[in-house]
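Regression test case RT-17, inverse folding.

Input:
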C-alpha cells in the first residue's frame, strides 16, 4: 500500500502538469495561430517536460538517467521493429481498401505525391517530435501504472483514456482533425494496448514506442486521410482493437510459456 502511494503521488503530479502545460499552451495558440505557433509546439513536449521535472524532483539525476536510459534499449528482435514501423500504416491501408470493398466507398487522389526521401525525412523528424510524448506516456507513466495495477491491461486502459483526453483541444479548432471524436477515442485506446505489448516485449524500450508513434503520424504525409469517411475510421478502430487483442493474447501466452519452462 505504501509503495502504491509513493508511485501514485509522482504519477498524479505528472498527469496534472502534462495537461496544464499542453492545454495552457494550445488554447492560446489556437486563438492566435500566427503569433503563438511556437507556444503550440511547446505543448507537444508537455509529457516529456513533466516526466523529467517529476523524475528529477523525486529521484534526482538517477530518475532522469532512468528515463533517457530507455533509449539505449534497442537490442530487441527484428519482429518488434517490423511491428513498430509497419503495423499501423498497414492498418490504415487495409481500412481504406476494406471500406472500398465493403461500402463501395470511392477514393480519389488518396495517395499524396510525396517522395521516398520526404517520407523518410518526415519519419525521422516525427521520431524527435514524438519523443516529447513518449518519454512521458510510455517512459514514465506506463511502468508506474503497471506497478500500481499489477496488470498491464488495467494500466493501459487508464493511460489510453488519459492519452486520448489529452488530445481534446485539437477538436476545438475547426479543420484540425478529420477523425470523428468518438472513433478517435476508440482508435487511440486500442492503440495504447499495442504500445503496451510492444513496450513490454522490447524490455521497456523507448525506441520501439517512438518508432510506433512516428509510423502512425507519418501516414497523413503519405495518404490524404482527410478523404476518409466515417466508415473508414470505424474500420480502422475495429482493426486496431483486433490487432491489440491478438498481440495481447500472444503476449500472455508467451509469458505463460516462459514461466512454465
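Golden output:
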Amino acid at each position: 500500500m505504501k509503495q502504491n502511494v509513493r508511485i501514485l503521488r509522482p504519477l498524479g503530479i505528472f498527469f496534472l502538469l502534462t495537461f496544464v502545460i499542453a492545454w495552457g499552451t494550445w488554447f492560446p495558440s489556437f486563438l492566435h495561430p500566427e503569433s503563438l505557433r511556437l507556444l503550440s509546439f511547446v505543448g507537444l513536449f508537455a509529457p516529456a517536460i513533466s516526466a523529467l521535472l517529476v523524475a528529477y524532483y523525486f529521484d534526482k539525476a538517477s530518475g532522469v538517467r532512468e528515463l533517457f536510459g530507455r533509449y539505449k534499449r534497442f537490442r530487441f528482435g527484428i519482429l518488434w521493429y517490423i511491428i513498430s514501423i509497419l503495423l499501423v500504416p498497414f492498418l490504415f491501408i487495409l481500412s481504406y481498401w476494406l471500406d472500398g470493398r465493403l461500402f463501395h466507398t470511392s477514393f480519389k487522389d488518396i495517395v499524396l505525391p510525396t517522395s521516398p526521401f520526404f517520407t523518410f525525412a518526415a519519419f525521422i523528424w516525427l521520431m524527435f517530435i514524438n519523443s516529447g510524448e513518449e518519454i512521458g506516456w510510455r517512459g514514465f507513466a506506463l511502468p508506474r501504472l503497471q506497478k500500481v495495477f499489477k496488470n498491464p491491461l488495467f494500466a493501459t486502459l487508464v493511460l489510453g483514456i488519459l492519452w486520448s483526453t489529452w488530445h481534446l483541444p485539437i477538436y476545438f479548432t475547426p479543420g484540425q482533425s478529420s477523425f470523428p471524436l468518438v472513433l478517435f477515442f476508440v482508435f487511440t485506446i486500442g492503440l495504447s494496448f499495442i504500445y503496451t505489448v510492444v513496450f513490454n516485449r522490447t524490455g521497456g524500450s523507448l525506441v520501439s514506442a517512438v518508432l510506433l508513434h512516428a509510423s502512425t503520424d507519418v501516414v497523413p504525409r503519405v495518404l490524404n486521410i482527410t478523404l476518409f469517411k466515417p466508415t473508414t475510421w470505424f474500420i480502422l478502430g475495429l482493426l486496431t482493437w483486433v490487432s491489440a487483442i491478438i498481440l495481447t493474447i500472444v503476449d500472455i501466452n508467451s509469458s505463460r510459456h516462459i514461466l512454465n519452462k
